[in-house]
Structure formats: C-alpha cells, structure tokens
C-alpha cells in the first residue's frame, strides 16, 4: 500500500518522535530530498533569498539546448561552483538516510540535488534518482553518455566555449 506522509509538529521534539514512529512502522520508505538536506554541508540553495537564482537568472532547458551562449554561461556557472561542490561532505541527514538504506528500509532515493552527497553517504549510484542531474560529471544530451568533467573544463578553458566533440566515456 502506498502511503504519502507529511509530518507537521508543534515542536522539534514531537516532530522527531512522530517521524521515528512512522519509520519504525513502515516496511519501505522512499525519501524525496531537496536543497535543505545539503545546505548544512555548504551547498547553497538556488531559490531562497541570496540563492544562486536571485543573483543569476535560471537558464531553462529549451534555452540551453537552443543557444550556445546559454550553454557557455551554464558551464561558467558550473565551474565557478566547483570548489564548493568539491569541499562538501555528507551531512547528518545524508548519513541518517544512508543508515536506513543500508538497513534495507530504503530501496532508492529521489532527489532534486545535484551534489552527489547521497552517493558519498553510501547509496549506490543506481539507487539515486537525480531529477536535475549530477554535478560530478557531464552527460551528453544527444547520446546519454557520461563524461569526465576535467576534460570538459580543459576544453572549455582552451576553446572559450562548451566542447562539441566527445571524449571517451567515463561511466
């Protein structure tokens, strides 16, 4: 039986207790995570005041596909954020979910995050459904192959534009 649950509590303690009871009663849990789980790890969110999209207009996918300028801007933004993503490590929420995954309560996780922290916490990559991709590699939108970001960045910096040729896949 599918049951979607939302916990609204008057205080943190009762909320944690309610959540603990729900987890104990459930045979299977499929978490859905967003920015909140990663902000404690140093990953800024996109939508909140001060977030990336308050400083830079989002680039819609159709614009990204149609415009080399939009793709180049998207890569510039990605490379500017690389030190932040590289320094991030899984936080308490990631580790708690990973322990439930390792215990067999969670078969997979769905996330809006692009930071790879669920995989770093112990989830198998094929058990993480990433709605917005993953910032640790580049995937060709034509063929679906994954490519090493180091190669993409080298080509971008050398040519001043996103690469059009493909290297050997890394995944």
Strand content: 5-15%
Order of helices and strands: HEHHHHHEHEEEH
Record the strand order, biggest sheet. Answer: 1-2-3
* Top CATH class of the domain at 31-135: Alpha Beta
Strand-helix topology:
Layout (H helix, E strand, L loop, with lengths): L11 H14 L6 E2 L2 H4 L12 H4 L5 H6 L1 H20 L4 H11 L6 E3 L5 H5 L6 E3 L6 E3 L6 E3 H11 L12
Parallel strand pairs: 1-2, 2-3
Antiparallel strand pairs: 4-5
Structural account:
The protein is mainly alpha-helical and 171 residues long. It has a domain at 31-135: Rossmann fold (3-Layer(aba) Sandwich). It contains eight helices and five strands, in the order αβαααααβαβββα. The protein has helices spanning 12-25, 36-39, 52-55, 61-66, 68-87, 92-102, 117-121, 149-159; strands at 32-33, 109-111, 128-130, 137-139, 146-148. The chain has a three-stranded parallel sheet, with no helix packed on it. β4 (137-139) and β5 form a beta hairpin. It is elongated. The protein starts with 11 loop residues before the first helix and ends in a 12-residue tail after the last helix.
In short:
The chain has a domain of 105 residues: Rossmann fold (3-Layer(aba) Sandwich), CATH 3.40.50.
Question: Features of this protein?
Answer:
mainly alpha, Rossmann fold, 3-stranded parallel β-sheet, two-stranded antiparallel ribbon
């Amino acid at each position: 039986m599918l049951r979607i649950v939302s916990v609204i509590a008057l205080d943190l303690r009762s909320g944690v207790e309610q959540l603990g009871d729900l987890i104990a009663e459930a045979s299977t849990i499929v978490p859905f995570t967003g920015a909140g789980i990663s902000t404690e790890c140093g990953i800024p969110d996109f939508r909140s005041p001060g977030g990336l999209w308050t400083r830079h207009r989002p680039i819609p996918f159709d614009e990204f596909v149609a415009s080399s300028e939009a793709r180049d801007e998207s890569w510039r933004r990605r490379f500017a954020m690389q030190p932040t993503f590289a320094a991030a490590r899984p936080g308490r929420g990631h580790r708690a979910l990973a322990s439930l995954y390792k215990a067999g309560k969670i078969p997979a996780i769905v996330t809006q995050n692009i930071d790879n922290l669920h995989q770093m916490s112990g989830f198998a990559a094929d058990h993480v459904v990433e709605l917005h991709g993953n910032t640790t590699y580049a995937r060709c939108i034509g063929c679906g192959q994954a490519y090493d970001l180091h190669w993409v960045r080298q080509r971008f910096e050398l040519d001043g534009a996103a690469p059009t040729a493909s290297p050997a896949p890394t995944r």
